[in-house]
Amino acid sequence: MFFLLISVCVVRSQDLIQEKFNNAYALSQQKNYRQALAEYKSIIDQIPAHSPARLQASWCYLILGEVAESARQADLAVMMDPFYQAVYSMKAYVSYAQGDPKAEQFLRLAIWMSSDDSILQYFQKDYDDLVEAGVQPQVFRALKNKTAKLFDERNKSFGPVITDISKGQQLLAEGNGGGAVSAFQNAIRMALFPSEFSHFRPL
Q1: 111-147 core/surface letters (b: 16 or more CB in 10 A; e: else)
Q2: What is the pTM (predicted TM-score) of this model?
């Protein structure tokens, strides 16, 4: 019974945190950034490793013009959840706001990790919100066209990856295991080192 009570309390606590996060996100969508930030900070105080709260806090800080704290929260979110595409979008926004020359690398990484082209609309909305808030308007206006072009580049690089995966599947079905392995390895190589990153130095 004792362990059951502990489990119930943990689940209830998680539900309350999720409810608080959802409320904070709703406030942010309504552009009540100060109130949303207070909620996200409350979550972080309770669960320092809550990367979604840190990610959203970074967004609120950036919109409010507190770029240094936005950058700190974005860095923490990247460290806590390095395989989450959105943290690199946030890192790109902050880097562009700071004039960091690595900004484009973060943007390209976020685009490469995007599941499909539908993610582009979220980038564009974020740029509009940043321009409206007065955060480097010239920079983020220009990024609307640039990001659309980068998605096109991503698709050109991703095409050969899909082609080699299909080739590997076909060879495997034909019983050509060696050829299939070679095709899959080539697909992995291109996915890990896409051509549009070739002129960048490592982050």
Answers
A1: bbbbeeeebbeebeebbebbbebebbeebbeebeeeb
A2: 0.78
